[in-house]
């Protein structure tokens, strides 16, 4: 099954699974529900949810209906934190949360499965015989979702383990390193879960709720029977054969299939032993042509009691006419009649039971009564009674006389279900929902409700609140703004302690999470209270309303230019509010803009010396160019280091964009280009070859990021004998040439970073061949190495990284340029390398800027791809590709799948795309429209399934995650055309 980023799960910590505890099943299989305010008018979301409900209803006897005022147990569906649900009927209001990433049919089906009464498939007691849980790959705090439960908690109802269950996690669920968390032991299954209910899901649900099994119902007589002269499809037919009568050679009695077999047999030689047989005859043919010993037989325990009639239907029986127009002697008054013991019986309600005892003696409790569909029970396909099997009503609505005593009338503990006899509030934290779903703070029944409330978003206004926290709890779990609140008039003055009871106060312990994370020494305390509030005898003092002081002086402006801000304050202390008086109306601070004039732009300087720093201008409005020139003493070179960098958008050739930074070795705009930088991310150090470096920022009013900051430092250039060549990097544009490390064939110097950029015309194919190679060896080439990229920048695709003394293989550039970097550290030095580059004629390419080229690594074949952004049906899309001398996309390998997913679909912002895969010619036999061989597929879980009401999903679609899905061909999607270069 597919999961969103916040994965689906049921609540942790329940002691009994509903599939074992049948009291937690929904009565009659009817589940009342309501939509929360967070869903509101989102009609598409409601349609998604009801669509998932319809799939459960269509394949099981479970029904969903809107909640009424009489329903005390119901499901509240809302947009919450993640995808989660209670398991089975927990009592009272329970929730399904569908947060970000949960708006998918399979996810809603999964959460409804929890409500129906299912745990996850991998929680089964027998799961170790089918899957292995890789705990080292699971996020530690979510290990509980993979616990194996005992048979006391889960009853699988005799259904085998189901890899394709809608309740099964995916193989990478809750992974912390993108590796598998669930592995099948059969060595074959690699996909778990489903997009729809599996056949075993349906079987288990029907067994759980004891749904009528149509396969165990006998066919209805005479509706499911037919007297015919040829065999009928979808029927079981018995030949009615009399060898001496030429008319009765191809006559059949047929029974509709799909129900319990009837096992009818025909005999023309008398009754059959151990069967109930009915003689079939005609007075006109009595003892004529063998019609004296023909019998229709059924098993003795069959519910059908057949009788033969020569003169029309028999009163009180169901009859089927046997009329044979071709046989004139047969006549038209022959009937086969029967009384069936297996007719459909509609269910009827039993009388209502007496009302149960009221759950509370005062303070508004409730009673319930129920009835059952047993008068009689529905059977043989008869209708059920309906949905109103359970009624509730309020009782003992009068107010309780006494307040609860502290602390003896209060408890804090874990409850499986919401306590119905006590006055309780649930303590929860949405950020840690799984572990805080069933802890309740309750007061004793028979006492007044003190109107407690709980908040995990700070204190509640107009109430007296106490902070409930635990410093040892992880902050990401949210326990820093949770409050227990009571009305201000309440006599209870609660205080909280996370380090034991408070001296002088009466306390109750709040034990939670089995004492982990500090929840073993927490106490809620207050003065002892006997339930009788103290009546004040002194007069209430007169309230004093608060008043503002005069405004203070303005603070210093936050900026000297470009609009800063300043503020001034006042306080509500003239006078302070006292004795319940009103606080001051309005704000205590006033803010105002200041120094709104524009700042002069500081753009470009010349630096000298040995070190320094500079940064891009803060004012980035308008089109501009800034140049910084760094000059250090002769015999030194410049090292440039960036502290942060965020300029323009990232692209392969930065200078093709509008915002970028160029770095040159020299003081002129035509000096050797060292690097072109753009995008976000701190680049590596840049070194000049001489004592001057030129840094230029070019902007076209598109810079919206922070810009950059840089530090430069002068480094001494190592002196070498004048006879040794010192070439270290550069841009090469000839069709062929050689490159060597500094000092070659002598040992290269230490601490070198040489970058060569080889560029040739686009119609040339660039190749590089090493003639000798000796670089310090390392298993991961971390000391000295040669790095080669397919392109002209450090951001280009990495081809290879070499070290050691093994001669590397030849390199062929996909682009028309190569970026080569040689790096040496401060330790060992070797002879280095010598390489030659040359060019060959390249094929003409795809033609046109919109076509993308891909070279297959299997056979070096070249293919061209064109993204069509207009939306069209599959047939129209293919016709458009044909006009462009191509066909719809086909995918032959995992490498091509990666290229399509990461290179082509990225340009469409990952919308659905048509491809050429289809089974239009023959259902289930998928083939490519360009007739290429089928060597690879990448179907999503449960696909292809030919789903939908019309069963017409015959064309392949690339989903945003790169998986394939079957879809009706008349939908409209974008598409990709593909052709092979000749």
TrEMBL record:
Its EC number is 3.4.24.-. It comes from the Eukaryota. The keyword Endoplasmic reticulum does not apply. Keywords: Disulfide bond, Glycoprotein, Hydrolase, Metal-binding, Metalloprotease, Protease, Zinc. One of its GO terms (biological process) is proteolysis. Its cofactor is Zn(2+). It is an enzyme of class 3 (hydrolase). Zn(2+) binds at residues 110, 114, 120. One of its GO terms (molecular function) is metalloendopeptidase activity. The active site is at residue 111. InterPro entries: Astacin-like_dom, C-type_lectin-like, C-type_lectin-like/link_sf, C-type_lectin_CS, CTDL_fold, CUB_dom, MetalloPept_cat_dom_sf, Peptidase_M12A. Pfam families: Astacin, CUB, Lectin_C, TSP_1. SMART domains: CLECT, CUB, TSP1, ZnMc. This is Metalloendopeptidase. The lineage of its organism: Eukaryota, Metazoa, Cnidaria, Anthozoa, Octocorallia.
